[in-house]
Amino acid sequence: MGLELDSPVRSKLVLFLELLEKWNRAYNLTAVREPEQMVARHLLDSLTVLPFLHGLRVLDIGTGAGLPGIPLALARPDLEFTLLDSNAKKTRFATQAMHDLGLKNVAVVQERVEKFHPETKFDTLIARAFASIPDMLAASRHLCTTQGRFLVMKGVFPQEELAAVTDGYQAEVRALRIPGLDAARHLVILAPTN
After folding, report:
1. Is 2 a member of any domain?
2. Domain range holding 121?
3. Which of 78, 126, 143, 185 has a CA between 20 and 30 Å from the CA of residue 57?
4. pTM over 0.90
5. CA–CA gap between residue 189 and residue 192 (Å, rounded)
6. Is residue 59 part of a domain?
7. What whole-number distance in Å separates Cα of residue 187 and Cα of residue 153?
8. Count of structural domains, the chain
9. Alpha carbon separation from 69 to 73, 114, 163, 167, 194 (Å, rounded)
10. Binned average pLDDT, 10 residues per bin, the chain of 194 residues
11. Which CATH number fits the domain that encloses residue 103?
12. Is residue 152 within 8 Å of 133, Cβ to Cβ?
């Protein structure tokens, strides 16, 4: 992956994992319980999309425990991140983590994506384990700028989901390699064409 992060960012990523492990015991935020597995399955998996971020405003749709939004916000303090989820316990965790990590470039919103109507649209919309690609596009299209991009993180190549995407998007799929993770990972990049 060739990812270079400075020491303060690496320290905050470790702190984020410690917070996630602690809160996960009480609130069941993620099925991944072992800190060693969290490094590959959560941190490195999240950070693989860094080169594909577009523009200044990023929306993490269905952020859950702040993934991938919090690791990305730590790595890119120059961008604005909004973490969106309808689950109150998950947004409470993301809000607490944001405060504990001193993140000034993050806003946490508890709302369903189709009901979310901010004043300003987003340049990059990211979804990780949220919904099928067609469902995600239908629910969130109103949040994307005309020059924006959707980044959809998937496991196996999502052939059927891509086939169900109707006109209006140019799609590109990149295979991702996550160090320490022996599983298929793909990033679907969708650009609206109208």
Report:
1. no
2. 7-192
3. 185
4. yes
5. 10
6. yes
7. 5
8. 1
9. 6, 19, 28, 28, 27
10. 76 88 70 59 82 97 93 96 95 95 97 97 93 94 96 94 90 88 89 88
11. 3.40.50.150
12. yes
